[in-house]
Amino acid sequence: MCLTLALSAFISSADPAVASTRKRDDANDANKANDVSKNNSAEDRAAAAIPASQNGEELVRARNFEVLYVTTRANEGSSFSPKYATKRKLDLGAGSLEYGACRIERPGSALVLRSATNFEQFKLSMQTADHDWQTAPVRRYDPLSLPDFLVKIKNWQGPIMVFIHGYDESFDESLKDAAMIAYQFDCKSDVPVLPIAFSWPSLSNKAEYSADEANLEWSTAPFFEFIDTLKAAKNPTSPLDMVAHSMGNRPVIQYCFQHRSDPASFRNVILSAGDVDYHMALSRIADVEAAADRSVTVIVSDRDAPLITSQLLHGQPRLGRPLDPPSVRAERSEFLTSAFWSRLTLDASAIIVPNALNMDADVGRWLSQNPGLGRELGQETIFIDVTDLITGELGHRLAYPVIAGILRETLTPLSTTAVYKRPDKLTLEAMGGNPRWLYRFHKIDSNKFRQ
What we know:
Blueprint: H1 3-7, H2 22-37, H3 42-48, E1 64-71, E2 73-75, E3 84-88, E4 98-105, H4 119-135, E5 138-144, H5 146-155, E6 160-164, H6 171-186, E7 194-199, H7 209-233, E8 240-245, H8 249-258, E9 266-272, H9 278-290, E10 292-300, H10 305-314, H11 338-351, H12 361-369, E11 374-375, E12 381-385, H13 392-395, H14 400-408, E13 416-420, H15 425-430, E14 438-444
Parallel strand pairs: 1-7, 6-7, 6-8, 8-9, 9-10, 10-12, 11-14, 12-14
Antiparallel strand pairs: 1-4, 2-3, 4-5, 13-14
């Protein structure tokens, strides 16, 4: 796997390491745009993308968008009317996993992103579609036995995406997040992706952070079991992508560590807004890279208030915000309140200028003295910075167009600019006050919108 070849398709030409492939990728993007224009609507495109060998009722298409699910939440309803809330499905001999499929009514606003002509319009359309996905009705839940679930997996010919959510997320929200990413992918892809949401029993309450940590830890072994089963059952020609958000990064990194000596499990690994210890994650980057055939991407935001809160709780930076936190004055009991998060966002905004490079004087001096300081996060891993794109949930929301773009290997119409940031205090102290390297952050640039 080569970083330049694998990632050049969606990194700005401002990064010299990948500039040489920009023209080729722009040509590919133009061809894709011409292909899209041949269809009158996303529904037409979805129908055209369905392989003849597959049953249309099993595919993601048109208004009713199908998402498969695997969950460690207990069914508190019935087999005819399932209800997955906050209770654990304890293993009493039948395992802790429930399987099924659901159909979500796609909101009409999901199409609007295609018509955006500038960054601000794109950002507003993205936020509107995100809101509408989260309020969209789930029209049907179909619990499945494991054999029936695996039949769907075995018969699928095309990419498969597993999405694992984070803290403070309900069952339905996790399904809709998976659908939102998959639909954005399908709109610009010749072959649809099969989305699978792995949903663990988050209490869906900001004040229940510790309970969510415990439930996720309990769900880790069943998650490993599911991934092993999925890998064994899927068509060998169907690539498997892994997308983790927030606290969901933890079991994914653990899985990669435990399988570090195995053949690659995934095509892409995307670690979004990672609520996981930054220094621990750095020590595991090589393991994550070994688990990915094509690329590893870490999505970060400087204004992510929940991750600032997590850093204050844990005492160390988080992977999704690998910086020192802004100075705050608060009691520990305030940390998990929305009012505190809002104040944090304002504090972060005061020191981070929107649509600017935000490289402080020391960083500029270090780079001028040694232009070779810059490097990527890993041999096959990059940071993508969505600070100026994501404002939902106080900076912690899914950057779903970016995630879909990574899976397609093009961020168009978005572009990036390479920036560098001051290392966290502990890292800088360990380096004697002068950095031996500075990680390169590929920042979504509001001034480089490409139609």
